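User: Show me a protein chain along with its predicted structure.
Assistant: Here is one chain, sequence first, then C-alpha cells.
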Amino acid sequence: MCSELTLIYSLVDIEEVPKRWPTIPRQLVKLLPWTRKRASAQKGNEVDTGRFLLLEEIEQLERRITGLDRSALSSLEVELRGKLRDSEKMAQQMEAWAQRYDGRIWHANSERFVQFMQGLKKRWGWDFNGKPKVTGKRKFDQLLRWVEEAPELNQDVWDRAEKVLRGLMADAELSKPATARPWSLKAAPEAGPSSIPN
C-alpha cells in the first residue's frame, strides 16, 4: 500500500503544475514525459485519467531553469523537444514490436501456420527456424497474415510465398559481410536447392 500511495502522489496532473510551480514556463512543462493514467487516491481501485507528470521530472526542471536567461531557456526547449521526439519514436517502435510479437505467438499456435511451414520444407526444403534475417522482416509477417487469411493453401499462395521468401533470402545474403572477391572467373554453379542465410 505504501508504494502504491507513493506512486499516486508522485504523479501530478499537468493542470496543477502552473498553480504549484508558477515559475516554470508552460511550454516547457508540455515537453516533459507523461502518462495517461494514475491510481486514484479517493476512489479505491479506480484509475484517474488525464495527463500526469512525474513529480521528480517537474522538480528537476524547476532546478534547471533557475537563473537561466531567455537564450538558455530557448536552448533548453530545443533539447526537451528533441527528447520528446525520441521518446515518442521509441514508444512507436515498442508498440510495433509488441504487435509483431503478439502476431508471431498467434501464428505459432495456428494450424494453418504449421501447415504452411511444413509445406515450405516439403516443396523447397526450406526450414526457417533460427533464421532471423528472414523471419525477422516485416515482409515475412505480412506474408504470414496473408497466408492466414487465404481461403486455402492453393497454388496462388505457394507462388506468392516463393516470390516473397526468395526476395527475403536474397536480401539476407546481400547483407552478409563480404568475405571473398566480388567477381570470379569460375563458372556459376548449377541451380539447386536454395540455402537460407542465418
